[in-house]
Design a protein that fits this description.
Strand 1, helix 1 and strand 2 form a beta-alpha-beta unit. It contains five helices and nine strands. Helices cover about 30% and strands about 15% of the residues. The protein has a single domain, classed as Collagenase (Catalytic Domain) (3-Layer(aba) Sandwich), CATH 3.40.390.10. Helix 1 packs across helix 3.
Length: about 210
């Protein structure tokens, strides 16, 4: 999903910051915060997802309940939830440092697309991902918990990558590759390519310009 522009009113080990696994180390300490809502039977995905995020970004991960009513984003004509409204609600109701990731099983859309797997504020604070369209059973296939977990992790890392300023990558195996369909999600890995990993390291090493 193309990231939202900044401003959402509409809506390692070697000491260099690099690791051999395509993950990024950082001195940044503000945690990533997962905000789950309407997860239903997919709530069991949250703990493994937190571990994937900790590994990918080398940051602590915490969980908070939503401080807003998700129904404010419901579109009764479509029977779906407007992801841009949800991003704005996340930003408004969860203050403090660090990135926010809304995780849901609700079906998401933006007005110009029939659905999205997720969305993010480019170079901002908030991202959102849904498991709704990632479930194999939705396409008449057998349940595959491992595949569902992998898909959710890829999409979550991808959307959070946008919040760190990363754009879509031409490397189809990179987690930042654009994947509007499940075939693309399944083809890519949950890892950053060398270029995206280095770009992420540079962006995270920039001095903070945030106010007190």
């Amino acid at each position: 999903m193309p990231p939202s522009p900044r401003g959402i009113d509409s809506p390692g080990a070697d000491g260099t910051g690099k690791t051999e696994t395509g993950r990024v180390a950082s001195q940044e300490t503000a945690p990533l915060t997962i905000v789950p809502f309407y997860c239903g039977s997919q709530r069991s995905l949250l703990e493994p997802l937190a571990k994937e995020l900790m590994a990918a970004f080398s940051l602590p991960v915490e969980r908070q309940p939503p401080g807003f009513d998700p129904e404010m984003a419901y579109d009764s004509a479509r029977g779906q939830y407007n992801s841009r409204i949800l991003l704005a609600l996340l930003l408004r109701h969860h203050q403090g440092p660090g990135k926010l990731l809304g995780v849901t099983d609700a079906d998401l859309f933006i007005p110009v697309l029939t659905f999205v797997f997720g969305e993010a504020q480019l170079d901002g604070r908030v991202a959102l991902v849904s498991s709704h369209r990632l479930v194999p059973e939705r396409y008449g296939l057998p349940a595959d918990p491992a595949q569902l977990q992998a898909r959710l992790a890829k999409e979550a890392i991808h959307e959070l990558g946008h919040t760190f300023g990363l754009v879509h990558c031409a490397n189809g195996r990179c987690v930042m590759a654009s994947s509007p369909q499940l075939t693309g999600v399944d083809l890519k890995t949950a890892r950053f390519c060398v270029d995206c990993r280095d770009a992420l390291r540079r962006r995270r090493s920039r001095p903070s310009t945030a106010g007190p």
